[in-house]
Each structure stands twice: as structure tokens, then as C-alpha cells.
């Protein structure tokens, strides 16, 4: 079965992914796939350079993610162009992972832009990591972004209301880790396992 896991920047999504993995899920990180499709020598990186210029490369010829982020998070058209390059390639990689998964595997697709790209219908279950925007902003700043960078990334993503609208399960991550772990265990027991059982019939 396919579980879509999403949430805004610094929402605690990665924490939920780790907890689901501990319960037996296979987690596929969309950001990791996005890095793979933009490695040196890939068609993806060539397309990015063609669109944005060599200023998004570092001295070694690899993608300078900070430079690219500085362009796309302040320019909606540029962001859309980047998504048009990256998302099809990531989708193809993910499809290959799904095809290779053993029967009965719970695949959790950790994907930040699930809502923005209208991906919710692809999943058997959509889980949203939920924390207030002000909390997420402070977490992002604590991770090294400037307040302006964090605010720009939050503004560029779907609204909390839009994410909640597609959620089958909303997990409050503005709580302590024990409470979060309990919520994930409950999600696994009441939503994931019944769906797996239904598919096995």
C-alpha cells in the first residue's frame, strides 16, 4: 500500500517518517530522489543549467542548492520551471521503487509538495504532519535558515488549510516526542494495518 506523508517545512515530517519506518514501513524520501536526479551528468542537472544558468553550479560542477533556492523561492515562475524539470524525473524514480516493492510492503512516500502537485489521489492514505506556521518558522531558523528565508519557503508552500483538506490522518507535531510516537502507533494500528489486511484478502 502507498502512504503519502507530507507537511510544511520544519513540520516534523521526517520524525514521523522515522517512526513509521520503525514500525515496518519502507520510507521513500522525495527530497533524496530529487537530489539523485540532479547529480552531475544527469539530464536533470543539464536541464536546470539550461534554464537557470551556470550560476547555480558550484566550482566542482555540482548543483549549488543554496544558489538555486535563492532564485526559485522568490520567483514563482522560476519555481514552476524547476518543478517541471524535477518532478517528472522523481516520479519515474518513485514508480520504479513501487514496482520493485514486495507484496504487502507499506511504502511511505515522504513528499513535501504532495498538495501543491495534486498527488493526494495517488495514495491509499495521506498523513499530514501538522504544526503552526510560527512554530515551523522558529524550527527552520534553528536549523540555519534566516527568518526571511524561512518565511519565504513557508509562503511558497501550500497553506495549512489546503494540507488539512487532503489529510486522511492529521498528526499534531507541536507536542513532545512521546505523544507524537503514541499518535504514530495509533495511526499504524487504526489506519495502516487495516488497509494492509484488506489488500491481503
TrEMBL record:
Any GO BP: coenzyme A biosynthetic process
Q: Which residues bind ATP?
A: 10-15
Predominant location:
cytoplasm
Q: What class of enzyme is it?
A: transferase
- What is catalysed by this protein? 3'-dephospho-CoA + ATP = ADP + CoA + H(+)
The record's InterPro entries line, in alphabetical order, gives: Depp_CoAkinase, P-loop_NTPase
- Which CDD domains does the entry mention? DPCK
Looking up Gene3D superfamilies in the UniProt record yields: P-loop containing nucleotide triphosphate hydrolases (3.40.50.300)
Which locations, inside or outside the cell, does it occupy? Answer: Cytoplasm
- UniProt-recorded Gene Ontology molecular function terms: ATP binding; dephospho-CoA kinase activity
One GO cellular component from the entry? cytoplasm
Give the UniProt keywords, A-Z: ATP-binding, Coenzyme A biosynthesis, Cytoplasm, Kinase, Nucleotide-binding, Transferase
Q: Which pathway? A: Cofactor biosynthesis; coenzyme A biosynthesis; CoA from (R)-pantothenate: step 5/5
According to the UniProt entry, what is the EC number of this protein?
2.7.1.24
Question: Origin, by domain of life?
Answer: Bacteria
Family the UniProt entry places it in: Belongs to the CoaE family.
Functionally, this protein is described as follows: Catalyzes the phosphorylation of the 3'-hydroxyl group of dephosphocoenzyme A to form coenzyme A.
Q: What NCBIfam families does its record include?
A: dephospho-CoA kinase (TIGR00152), PRK03333.1 (NF002879)
Q: Which HAMAP family match?
A: Dephospho_CoA_kinase (MF_00376)
Protein name, please?
A: Dephospho-CoA kinase
Q: Which species? A: Serinibacter arcticus
Classification of source organism = Bacteria, Bacillati, Actinomycetota, Actinomycetes, Micrococcales
Amino acid at each position: 500500500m502507498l502512504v503519502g506523508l507530507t507537511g510544511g517545512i520544519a513540520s516534523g515530517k521526517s520524525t514521523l517518517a522515522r517512526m513509521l519506518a520503525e514500525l515496518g514501513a519502507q520510507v521513500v524520501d522525495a527530497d533524496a530522489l530529487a537530489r539523485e536526479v540532479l547529480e552531475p551528468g544527469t539530464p536533470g542537472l543539464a536541464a536546470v543549467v539550461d534554464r537557470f544558468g551556470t550560476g547555480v553550479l558550484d566550482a566542482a560542477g555540482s548543483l549549488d542548492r543554496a544558489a538555486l533556492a535563492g532564485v526559485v523561492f522568490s520567483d514563482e515562475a522560476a519555481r514552476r520551471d524547476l518543478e517541471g524539470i524535477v518532478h517528472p524525473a522523481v516520479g519515474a524514480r518513485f514508480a520504479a521503487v513501487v514496482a520493485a516493492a514486495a507484496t504487502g510492503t507499506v511504502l511511505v512516500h515522504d513528499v513535501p509538495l504532495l498538495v501543491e502537485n495534486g498527488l493526494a489521489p495517488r495514495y491509499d492514505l495521506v498523513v499530514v504532519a501538522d504544526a503552526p506556521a510560527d512554530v515551523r518558522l522558529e524550527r527552520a531558523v534553528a536549523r540555519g535558515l534566516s527568518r526571511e528565508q524561512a518565511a519565504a519557503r513557508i509562503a511558497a508552500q501550500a497553506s495549512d488549510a489546503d494540507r488539512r483538506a487532503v489529510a486522511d490522518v492529521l498528526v499534531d507535531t507541536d507536542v513532545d516526542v512521546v505523544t507524537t510516537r503514541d499518535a504514530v502507533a495509533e495511526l499504524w494500528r487504526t489506519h495502516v494495518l487495516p488497509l494492509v489486511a484488506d489488500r491481503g484478502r
